[in-house]
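pinging the channel bc i need a second pair of eyes. not urgent but kinda urgent?? the chain im working w is below, pasted from the shared doc
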Amino acid sequence: MKSNGKNVPRLRQVADLEIATSKKARESWQMFTIMAEFIESAERLSEVRPAVSIFGSARIKQDDPYYALCIDIARRLSDAGFAVISGGGPGIMEAANKGAYEGASSSVGLNIELPHEQGSNPWQNISLSFRHFFARKVAFVKYADAYVVLPGGFGTLDELTEVLTLIQTGKSRRIPVILVGTTFWRGLLDWFKSQLIHDGMIAEKDLDLMQLIDEPANIVDAIFSFYEERDVPVAEIERPTSTFL
């Protein structure tokens, strides 16, 4: 690659040795904390299988219909043999953990340190704490055999588009991605069609990466059907290391 004659400074060229050493120390420590989060998640989650990651807003209250719906979905998944992975916080995350906790399989919380909104819920058999969003996001994808996405804000949309991008680009294996809440998601899906497909930003087949399902029992059936069509028993799913790591 050509440098175009520009002088691009490097850390080792910093004249003040004390400043350079301090910067190196900070960067090294940051790297080690990131590595520690990857190592702990691998240690705690590698044998938790099969599993489903559930996403949705932290702002949804316990009296919201989506809260009760999420508990039902998580309980059914748990009783069907799926560990349930959530963000470990309030709202939909809490509902997902609670439903799984009351079921037959493990309830997993991937908690994140935030200045607001995020407080760990008590319904977790396995609880991990992350400082770095991207290490947490890797765990959500790497250890999940399906995504169930309920209504949410920027964080929920971030997780949804992240997994769609990874699957679309072949950086992660294909898994079911199920959107819950027809009324909530319909406008976004219509925009995908009218704008993204129309303008050539995505292919029409990319919409097939998602399913829109509202009935809890049908969600469980859809996940089983996905793997049965590929002749892969869900209980024996192997998770090859995704190439985005």
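so Residues 22 and 111 are 30 Å apart (CA to CA). and Helices lie at 17-45, 65-79, 92-101, 133-142, 154-168, 182-197, 216-229. — does that match what u expected or am i reading it wrong
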